[in-house]
Structures are given as structure tokens and as C-alpha cells.
Design brief:
heterodimer; A: mainly alpha; MetI-like fold; 2 domains; 3-stranded antiparallel β-sheet; 65% helix; B: 265 residues; alpha/beta; Rossmann fold; 4-stranded antiparallel β-sheet; 11 helices; globular
């Protein structure tokens, strides 16, 4: 009856004369709009994918080189006259010989090799070999001798790091044109490198120390590794996990299940959402003021970094935990209360297990975010050339000055030597592998918990 | 009207299990239940009928204080279970709910095994000293829920994997597992098909021997079939309360008659 008032009287209506097989104008317009929308959507996805592919190929092509390093094999005669003048094999005496004592031996060993191979080269002294060998080579040989003093007097085969210019030449980073303006290496050396490479003395190999090693000084990019800052990140993540998971989950359970709904809790809720959007550097300066200047915790320590990142991660965890608690159907709470469970029993026995996949996913996403965070670390001193050695033990891991993976990458990208540029990209690859692993763990945990029923 | 109720009580000589006097319920500013007086007898099925939004579910939820979970809900008046005021500050709602079990509109088994669904209540109330006792309680509850034969071979299967009717009987079994004295049912058959409904109704009739059952229903046929007492609610008022046979055949209040014959609702 009411329909009659809205539609024109039957006599005014144009009778539906069109066949179903012919589209009328409105339908055509609608279909065109839908088709356009699909094209927009599809092109957005394609553009996104193109950028992703470009990003990944750039990262891989720039960074893969860092996992390869050029090594020189040399038979070094560990001359007792130079390394242990007293001849008593006293470890204290041997330790007195610095790396400067070892450098000539290595240079001599390489020069002998060149002579033995009969390579024609204008470089006619052992000292000329300096440009080929990394400054860290002497330290490697020295460490080996100190660990094993009986080697003195023998000729030992070492696999030594080549200088970063040689490494760059083998990887195509250093070209003969560029060498003309380079004080560190010249064309004669490159000729020699070519000859030694043919003879198998110089070769590229897998660079384990890039993954496990410590950072190195500005002039020795060939020695720098991500290992120590990886430990720094690891200890920070321990702090973040140990603090933010229990605090975040407890806060969310309280807010979601127990707290009265009033103005105060509304304000808290809004502020938690706002905190999630606060720039991370703000947390950094807060950490600097509270943890370092007020509480006098050690600077540059993963403990402080972890505390700052905890503050940053908490809102993420609280928001995702509350969302997953909210998603648990209220009928489950009713059921538990109906059989006489207390509020807390209903939450811990029924609601929390059901919310677990969401909580874990949120936590791991929060951790991944914290793992990649750089800005707050700049303010608490976890950046720069800090770590040269592995931390001593577990306690040391938390309080010894260290860096973190993203801060280390930033530091490398900042350095002048192009060899560090390559290492920065390599570091990005490692960081991405970690993030991907964490995401996969999140997905697996989610599946595992959901498959239970 | 109240005299009529009292006469009914005295005639039947049944013991009053729950007595409500002058109950008012407010949701914020809304006055949802007004001046409700009712006596619910032991070992009897009492049906609450009435149009949607009339307050019958709200009143049912007052009887085991499930309304406590709603922040804005406020209950006034006096509700006694065996002569004890259940809204007394000394009463812990958790203890009350162990005595007054509840079955909900939608079957809501825990996402756990059938066994754990039943065993949960007895476990938290410490009713079993060992596994054997617990097994016994579970079996007894499932038998009372008339579902034992269907699930005895798959107690480890998830309760959520059962059919709707089985789930609802599982929920009834879960409610009786804690040995309640009163069983509240909030439209227990509204999500079930006619066959499952018939099974649940049959079950309700059996449960009457041990418990005082209060059932909210939208189906007047169901009220007529399962209950001995019927209360008709309208706009928050208890309009009429009496023997089911009397309410359906010879209602005193014109509003009851209109509802039963389908003129309001």
C-alpha cells in the first residue's frame, strides 16, 4: 500500500519493454563503474608488487656481496727470532710482540709466494705487498700464535683477509679507472692480484665472520661483521619480551575484563592508542632522561635499549591483546560464569586460551617492530663504533655497551668507504631474514593454536 | 491476583524454592522490571512467557545474578533462595551460580572436549577427589542430559563438533554436573530444529524430578507442553502467574488472553 505512494501510477510508468538480453543504460553505467574500480584496485596491487620486487632485487644485488669475502692463502714462516726473542716460549713474552711484529712476516710470505710463482711484476719488495693484505691479517696470525705457541718456528698455512680494495676489485666494485685516483692501491697491484687469482692464491669465499664477527674500524671494512650487534639485539629482545608480554597482557586483561567502564578508563584507552602513534624518537629521549640521566643505568647498554623498546612495544601488544580478547564470544564468558566460575577463572581458563593466537601474533609483530627500530637507540648511545668484542657472559650481555642490528647498519651506511655500503645492504638482508623468521613463527603459532579445535 | 497465586501454592502444597518480592530492575534510566512478585516452586517447571522485550529474560538472569556482569544494570527488591536473600552483600555470586545453574539461548559449549566441558564445573568446585570420581560425575551428568549414549565413545572429541541439539543437551548436562538446585533456561530451544526441541523438552520434563526448572520461551506451545506453572510478563510487569492449564485455558487478565490468542506480541 505504501509503495503506491512512492512510485508513479501504473499508467505513467513506461512499461518494461526491453529484453533481458539487452543491457539498459543504468546497468551499463553500473557495470562500467565496477570495471573501473577493479582496474584501479588491480593496478594498485601491481604497483605495490613492482615496488616490492624492485626493493628486494636491489637489496639482494647490493647486499649479497657482503656474504663473500676475498681471502689470501699464505704459508707464513713464524720466525722465532722475531716472535719469541728469548726462545723460552713464555706466553707473556709472546704476548709482548704486537701485530707490528707479525706484519713483515706475512708480507714476506706473500712476496715469497709471488717469487715462487714467477709472476712478472714491478713490485720488488715484501713491503709492496702491504696494499694487498688486510690490516687485520696480522691480528689473526697473532691470535693463532698466542692460542698455540708451539707453532713458532714452523711454516703455517693461513687464510688471511685481503685488503678491502682487493676485495672490491674481485667483486667489481673497484675498477681500474677508479684506481688512478686511489692512494691505497694502484694498477701494478691489480695486475699482481689478477696473476695471484689465476694461481689460486687469492680467492673469494663465504664470509662467515660477516655474520658472526664484530664491527671494525673505519679503515678495515673487510673485517666488519654483524655478530656482536646481533647479540645486542638479542639481549634487547629478551628484555622486551620479558617485560612487555606480561605487562601488556595483564594490562589488557584488566582493562578489557575487570576495569569499570568510566571516564578514566576511556581516557586511558584513548591514550594507549595515541601512544602507539608516538614517534619512536620520543621514547628514545624519554629513555635518555629517565633510565640514563635519572636512574643512572649504563649508557649504550642493551638493558636500557630493551627498556625503551618495551615502552614502545607495550601499546602495540595492549591493542592487539584487547582486540583478541574482545573477539572471544561473550557466550563463552556466560557459559563459564553460568557453571559458577569466578570472573578470573572464566578469563584465565576460557577467554585467554581462545585469545592466545591473537596475543602471540601481536606480541611477535611488536617484537619485530622493536627489532627494526633505530631512532630511540641513537639517543641512548647504542650507535657508533662501540662494540669491538663479544660481551662477557649473560650479565655482560645486558649491561656492556653494544649496538643493535639496525643501528649497526645505519652506522655502516654512514661510513665513507664503499665497502661499508655493501655491508650495510648485507646487514639489511640479515635483518630481513630475522623479521621474516619471526613472522613465520607468528603464523605457525597461530595455526597451531587454532588447529586445536 | 496475588491471592490467586497464593491459593495455588497452598493447594499444591509444593515447597517454594525461590521467592521474589517487589523486584525492580533498571538498565541505566530504563525501568525494565516493575514490582515483580513471584514464587517458584521446587521440582516444578515454571515457564516465563511474554512478547520480546517484556523483561522475562532479564528477570531470569536476576535469579542467579548474571545481571551483575552488566555494569549499568541495577536490581532492587528481595529475591530469596530457600529463604536466604541472594542479593545480600555477604553472598558471593559464584557460590550462588553453583546452586542456580543456567542454560543459554544459543548452545555455548567450551571449545574443549566433551569430557572437559562437563568436568569443568565439578573441577572448579572441587567436587571430585580423583579421576574416577570425576569420570562418574561426567557420566551421570551426560546421562541426565540425555546425551550419554550419543557421545560415550567420543568424550575426547570437541564439544563444538556436535550438532546444535546435541550441543544444547551438552550444555544442560554441563549445568547439572555441578549439582544445582535450580536450573534456569533462557529460550533453550530457540536455535534448535523441531526434533532437537522435542528431545530437549523431554529432557526438561525428566529434570523436573530433581530440580526446580525455570524456562523462558517464546513458544506458547512449548510453555504449555513442558511447564506446570506459567508467568506472563508484559512491558516489565508480571501480569499473571498461575497453573499453566489455567493460564492457557482460562486467563484472568485480558492482556494474557490477548497474547495467548495472538492479538498482542
Amino acid at each position: 500500500m505504501t509503495d503506491a505512494a512512492n512510485t508513479p501510477a501504473p499508467s505513467d510508468m513506461t512499461p518494461a519493454k526491453g529484453s533481458l538480453h539487452v543491457l539498459d543504460a543504468r546497468t551499463k553505467k553500473r557495470n562500467a563503474a565496477e570495471a573501473r574500480f577493479r582496474i584501479y584496485g588491480l593496478s594498485a596491487v601491481v604497483i605495490g608488487l613492482v615496488f616490492l620486487v624492485v626493493l628486494l632485487t636491489t637489496i639482494l644485488s647490493n647486499g649479497v656481496g657482503a656474504f663473500q669475502q676475498t681471502f689470501i692463502s699464505a704459508q707464513v714462516y713464524l720466525d722465532p727470532a722475531k716472535l719469541d726473542k728469548k726462545g723460552e716460549r713464555d706466553i707473556e713474552d709472546i704476548k709482548k710482540v704486537s701485530t707490528f711484529g707479525y706484519t713483515p712476516l706475512i708480507q714476506q710470505a706473500l712476496f715469497d709466494k709471488v717469487q715462487e710463482l714467477g709472476v712478472e711484476t714491478p713490485l720488488d719488495s715484501a713491503k709492496d705487498m702491504k696494499a694487498l693484505i688486510s690490516a687485520s691479517a696480522a691480528a689473526i696470525v697473532r691470535d693463532e700464535v698466542i692460542a698455540n705457541p708451539d707453532l713458532i718456528g714452523q711454516t703455517v698455512e693461513f687464510r688471511l683477509l685481503a685488503a678491502s680494495r682487493v676485495d672490491g676489485y674481485l667483486k667489481g666494485r673497484v675498477t681500474r679507472e677508479a684506481v688512478a685516483r686511489d692512494k691505497n692501491i694502484d694498477a701494478e697491484h691489480l695486475d699482481l692480484v689478477d696473476a695471484l687469482r689465476e694461481a689460486g692464491v687469492i680467492a673469494k669465499g663465504f664470509n662467515l665472520s660477516f655474520i658472526t664477527g664484530a664491527d671494525a674500524s673505519e679503515s678495515r671494512p673487510e673485517q666488519a661483521g654483524l655478530g656482536v650487534s646481533m647479540l645486542g639485539s638479542f639481549f634487547m629482545m629478551l628484555v622486551v619480551l620479558a617485560l612487555s608480554l606480561p605487562i601488556g597482557v595483564a594490562a589488557s586483561i584488566y582493562l578489557e575484563e575487570f576495569a569499570p567502564k568510566n571516564r578514566l578508563t576511556d581516557i586511558i584507552e584513548v591514550n594507549i592508542s595515541n601512544l602507539a602513534a608516538v614517534p619512536s624518537i620520543v621514547f628514545g629521549i624519554l629513555g635518555l632522561a629517565v633510565f640514563i640521566q635519572f636512574m643512572h643505568l649504563p649508557q649504550s647498554a642493551p638493558l636500557v635499549g630493551g627498556l625503551v623498546l618495551t615502552l614502545m612495544t607495550l601499546p602495540t601488544i595492549i591493542i592487539s591483546t584487547r582486540a583478541s580478547l574482545k573477539a572471544v564470544p561473550p557466550s563463552i564468558r556466560d557459559a563459564a560464569l553460568g557453571v559458577g566460575a569466578s570472573k578470573m577463572q572464566s578469563v584465565f581458563h576460557h577467554v585467554l586460551p581462545l585469545a592466545m593466537p591473537g596475543i602471540l601474533t601481536g606480541t611477535i609483530i611488536g617484537l619485530a617492530q622493536a627489532l627494526g627500530e633505530t631512532a630511540p637507540l641513537l639517543l641512548i648511545g647504542m650507535v657508533g663504533y662501540i662494540a669491538t668484542n663479544y660481551p662477557d657472559g649473560l650479565a655482560g650481555g645486558f649491561v656492556d655497551p653494544n649496538s643493535a642490528m639496525p643501528a649497526q647498519i645505519y652506522e655502516w651506511a654512514k661510513r665513507a668507504d664503499p665497502a661499508y655500503y655493501e655491508r650495510a645492504w648485507g646487514g639489511i638482508i640479515i635483518l630481513l631474514v630475522f623479521l621474516m623468521t619471526m613472522n613465520i613463527i607468528a603464523i605457525l603459532l597461530r595455526r597451531r593454536f587454532e588447529r586445536r579445535w | 491476583m496475588y491471592d490467586a497465586v497464593n491459593t495455588e501454592q497452598s493447594v499444591q502444597q509444593t515447597e517454594t524454592k525461590i521467592s521474589a518480592r517487589n523486584v525492580q530492575v533498571y538498565y541505566g534510566d530504563t525501568h525494565a522490571i516493575k514490582d515483580v512478585d513471584v514464587d517458584i516452586a521446587d521440582k516444578t517447571v515454571t515457564a516465563f512467557i511474554g512478547p520480546s522485550g517484556c523483561g522475562k529474560s532479564t528477570f531470569l538472569r536476576c535469579l542467579n545474578r548474571m545481571n551483575d556482569t552488566i555494569d549499568i544494570c541495577r536490581v532492587e527488591g528481595r529475591i530469596e533462595l530457600d529463604g536466604e536473600d541472594i542479593y545480600d552483600p555477604k553472598v558471593d555470586p559464584v557460590q550462588l551460580r553453583a546452586k542456580v545453574g543456567m542454560v543459554f539461548q544459543k548452545p555455548n559449549p567450551f571449545p574443549k572436549s566433551i569430557y572437559d566441558n562437563i568436568a569443568y564445573g565439578p573441577r572448579i568446585h572441587g567436587m571430585a577427589r580423583n579421576k574416577a570420581e570425576l569420570d562418574e560425575i561426567v557420566e551421570r551428568a551426560l546421562r541426565r542430559g540425555a546425551i550419554w549414549d550419543e557421545v560415550k565413545d567420543r568424550l575426547d572429541a570437541p564439544g563444538t563438533g556436535l550438532s546444535g541439539g546435541q550441543q544444547q543437551r551438552l550444555c544442560i548436562a554441563r549445568a547439572v554436573a555441578t549439582e544445582p538446585e535450580v536450573l534456569l533456561m533462557d529460550e533453550p530451544c530457540s536455535a534448535l530444529d523441531p526434533i532437537a526441541t522435542a528431545q530437549v523438552e523431554e529432557l526438561i520434563d525428566e529434570l523436573r524430578q530433581n530440580y526446580s526448572v525455570v524456562i523462558v520461551t517464546h513458544s506458547m506451545q512449548q510453555a504449555a507442553r513442558v511447564s506446570q506453572k506459567t508467568a506472563f510478563f508484559h512491558l516489565g510487569n508480571l501480569v499473571e502467574f498461575g497453573d499453566t492449564s489455567q493460564i492457557f485455558t482460562n486467563p484472568e487478565d485480558p492482556r494474557t488472553e490477548s497474547y495467548i490468542t495472538g492479538r498482542i506480541g
